[in-house]
Amino acid sequence: MSATVENRWHEAGLRYYAYSWYLRQRFGERIQKVSLDAKFTCPNVDGTVAKGGCTFCDNRSFSPSRREPIRDITDQLANGMTRLKRRYKVDKFIAYFQPATNTYAAVDKLRPLYEQSIDHEKVVGLSIGTRPDCVEPDVMDLLEEFAGRTYMTVEYGMQTIHDRSLDWMNRGHHHDATVDAIERSRGRGFQICLHVILGLPHESHADMMATAAEVARLNIDAVKIHNLYCVKNTKMADQVASGEVVLMERQEYISTLVDFLERIPANVLVERTIGDAPPDYFVGPSWCLDKSAVLRAIDDELVKRDTWQGKFCEVETA
Ligand code: SF4
Fold first, then answer.
1. CA 296–ligand 1 middle distance (angstroms)
2. I want to staple 99 with a disulfide (CB 3.0 to 4.6 A). Which of 66, 92, 123, 178 is the partner?
3. Domains in the chain, start-ordered, CATH in brackets?
4. Which keywords accompany this UniProt record (predicted)?
């Protein structure tokens, strides 16, 4: 991507570097991600690093593809595209391996799955969601190979830089695993995206801003941010019910998110600013369910404060 595009979001009247805008500039039209489920599990579920998974995790709530009957990748693509075309005026897609850990297999199993997804004529890119401790050297080489063939992002679940919070959520890795994955990912041709959660229990505002500062220091390409939210049938649902975990109020989240955006570099793509899940799976906070209203409120907060992404970032960008 050219530096020109990175700098133009200001001129387009945006206050942060929105991924949807970036994709439109890059591909000349609206692009949607199609969620694909290759039926992977996760080393944090099957006992390899831990059992039970992250306290907030029910993969069915994260991704439409895991709520549907098992189909092969080509069928899932066709089905997802039909649904998205009906909902949006869109004709090009990014194949998004979303639920669970999408690098958790041998290269000879991964290759045909990724291959099938990019073979479709309407697919312009590939996105792989995974854990930072689950990218073996030969898998990293495979990701690099696919990045040479199509636009590609790899999403690492960082969540926070604070090891005590990672322990709290039963993550099964610490922040050093994220730093290691990023260093091994550099220069391989794919965009590096980090997932971040705001509002974790026992994290102060200063703790969350420390995560923002680390995102800035790590010199990555993109970030996906959401508030801690709760879905049914998880350990966290019990913790929320008992009052052990208190979820952020709407205005507190919006204000914290804007503080976070101010501290990350202007050239980091912002892929997501709010979390949500289908109402059937959702516990709270209820304000998340009106995603459009929250997105408008984030914009309003940026305008009210006359601020923007990177305003207080202390890291110089090229
Ligand atoms: S690493 Fe991801 S898939 Fe695995 S338990 Fe945690 S949230 Fe779920």
1. 30
2. 66
3. 3-7+16-304 (3.20.20.70)
4. 4Fe-4S, Iron, Iron-sulfur, Metal-binding, S-adenosyl-L-methionine
